[in-house]
Design brief:
Spore Coat Polysaccharide Biosynthesis Protein SpsA, Chain A, alpha/beta, 7 helices, about 25% strand
Length: about 260
């Protein structure tokens, strides 16, 4: 605990060539006692952006995103740890809520969940994926960790988690191409480490899951009320499942010599 009577906070971030996003992210968490950025050997201005904050440490490691965040968790010395992505921002209201928690942290609480406010092409989704949902965001040091099994996994933890009152901003996709770039990155990672079945992955489950994702976010959660952006987001979430299946099938065939060398 610091002399000012509140417990301390470390912020964990992983990044690669996203200095243009990192700048505003760091500004929103500048009240933190530690900021630990695990950088995958960026070639942009990441180091310069981090140097503007004396409490920021830059560590270079080229691993999976969750692996990098675990490294940041291990490096943290503060009482609490918060994970945030470069395209996410704390609102002033959420920052004030977090500071209040640090002044008087509740006994027996492992961590806090806050709700995500996604922005697509500059517009906040209110429906579909924008339907209010929470993510484990801040926890007592040593009480949570990623299992590093796939790119969209949740923290592995136990104990009591509370939900906060305010949300954080997530600028998921600034352009349509961002969906394709991120989708390619995530499906590369997940298809590479997923266990392969004995028999070839078939199209049926992929089609069903793609349809389920579109139904869930466009119809059930009323993504259509967000106009064409809601349609775009739901459609891309469905396409993600197809792309993941295609890469798994490709890997399955390559490992059996059914596809020639590139």
């Amino acid at each position: 605990m610091k002399d000012n009577g509140r417990e301390t906070l470390a912020v964990a971030i992983t990044t690669k060539n996203a200095a243009h996003l990192l700048r505003d992210c760091l500004a929103s968490v500048s009240f933190a006692d530690e900021i630990i950025v695990v950088d995958m050997f960026s070639t942009d201005d990441t180091a310069e952006v981090c140097a503007a904050y004396p409490q920021c440490r830059l560590i270079q490691h080229n691993g999976y995103m969750q692996e990098n965040l675990n490294i940041a968790f291990d490096e943290a010395k503060s009482d609490w740890v918060m994970r945030i992505d470069t395209d996410e921002r704390l609102t002033s209201e959420l920052a004030a809520e977090i500071r209040a928690i640090l002044v008087d942290p509740p006994e027996g609480v492992t961590g806090f969940e806050f709700w995500e406010r996604p922005f697509i092409l500059g517009r906040e989704l209110k429906h579909g994926f924008g339907k209010k949902h929470f993510r484990k965001f801040m926890f007592r040091r040593g009480q949570a960790r990623f299992p590093v099994e796939h790119d969209h996994e949740d923290l592995k933890t136990s104990g009591v988690w509370r939900r906060g009152r305010h949300g954080y901003l997530h600028y998921n996709y600034g352009a349509v191409r961002d969906y394709l770039v991120k989708m390619n990155y995530y499906t590369d990672n997940d298809s590479r480490r997923a266990p392969l079945p004995e028999k070839a992955p078939t199209m049926g489950p992929a089609l069903r899951e793609a349809a389920r994702q579109f139904y869930l976010y466009y119809l059930k959660y009323k993504g259509f009320r967000d106009g064409w952006i809601g349609f775009l987001d739901a459609g891309m979430r469905g396409f993600y499942q197809f792309l993941l299946w295609a890469k798994l099938r490709e890997r399955w065939e390559r490992e059996r010599g059914l596809i020639g060398e590139r």
